[in-house]
């Protein structure tokens, strides 16, 4: 339980009722979700019938989209109010998703080498020890499986875009959603990934065009939001 920020839990608990309001506090997540799902599906060469873990699943926006593509999805989170919303919406959507109130570290003790794909999106910047999450994901993915992380880079551009523009100018996310000091530079995340035993395979940036109000993916830069796709070594190559 040491890798939990009580203020972060409280913040998301207060917002829990808004998870499925597509024009509300989590509008930006709904807007980027099709891009995220397509990118993830391509990264793991299809989702159908694969066992998937959504770490920090919140209200289930990503979990449901993955399940709709035929994946067998488990979602974990430490905000009960968010999970309650996810459970209710799962029933409305008639999807088979397994939700649990637990940390990635605790879940890893029960579920070593269980998942074809692990997604940990927009979560690492909300915990005190992101490397512990990376390590837990590496322990839960099957040999040869895929882990996808997304987070925010830490620099002046990301401060202007993700804090000033997103929270105050365009009001894309609630004020106080992010703490810029917790953003993670690729030069910090990649060593975490390598120390965990995973292999970083590719990186791409998530970008926003304010005039068109449109999101897109491009590997030209990873200055603000970015994804890293990782591969777990095949069993024969593991020590």
From TrEMBL:
Encoding gene per record: ubiG
PANTHER family recorded: METHYLTRANSFERASE, UBIQUINONE BIOSYNTHESIS O-METHYLTRANSFERASE, MITOCHONDRIAL
Protein's organism: Glaciecola siphonariae
Enzyme class (EC, first level): transferase
Catalytic reactions on record: a 3-(all-trans-polyprenyl)benzene-1,2-diol + S-adenosyl-L-methionine = a 2-methoxy-6-(all-trans-polyprenyl)phenol + S-adenosyl-L-homocysteine + H(+); a 3-demethylubiquinol + S-adenosyl-L-methionine = a ubiquinol + S-adenosyl-L-homocysteine + H(+)
Protein name: Ubiquinone biosynthesis O-methyltransferase
SUPFAM superfamilies: S-adenosyl-L-methionine-dependent methyltransferases (SSF53335)
Lineage of source species: Bacteria, Pseudomonadati, Pseudomonadota, Gammaproteobacteria, Alteromonadales
Function: O-methyltransferase that catalyzes the 2 O-methylation steps in the ubiquinone biosynthetic pathway.
Matches recorded under HAMAP family: UbiG
């Amino acid at each position: 339980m040491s890798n939990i920020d009580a203020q972060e839990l409280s913040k998301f608990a207060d917002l829990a009722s808004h998870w499925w309001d597509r024009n509300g506090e989590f509008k930006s997540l709904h807007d980027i979700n099709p891009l995220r799902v397509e990118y993830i599906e391509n990264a793991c060469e299809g989702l159908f019938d694969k066992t998937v873990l959504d770490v920090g699943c919140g209200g289930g926006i990503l979990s449901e989209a993955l399940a709709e593509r035929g994946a067998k999805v488990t979602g974990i989170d430490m905000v009960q109010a968010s999970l309650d919303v996810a459970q209710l919406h799962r029933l409305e959507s008639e999807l088979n998703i397994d939700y649990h109130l637990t940390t990635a570290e605790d879940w890893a003790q029960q579920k070593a080498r269980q998942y074809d794909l692990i997604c940990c999106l927009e979560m690492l910047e909300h915990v005190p020890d992101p490397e512990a999450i990376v390590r837990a994901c590496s322990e839960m993915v099957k040999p040869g499986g895929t882990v996808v992380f997304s987070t925010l880079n830490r620099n002046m551009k990301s401060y202007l875009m993700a804090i000033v523009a997103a929270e105050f100018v365009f009001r894309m996310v609630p004020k106080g959603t992010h703490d810029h000091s917790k953003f993670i530079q690729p030069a910090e995340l990649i060593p975490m990934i390598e120390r965990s035993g995973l292999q970083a395979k590719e990186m791409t940036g998530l970008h926003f065009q304010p005039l068109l109000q449109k999101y897109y993916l491009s590997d030209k830069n990873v200055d603000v939001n970015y994804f890293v796709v990782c591969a777990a070594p095949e069993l024969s190559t593991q020590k």
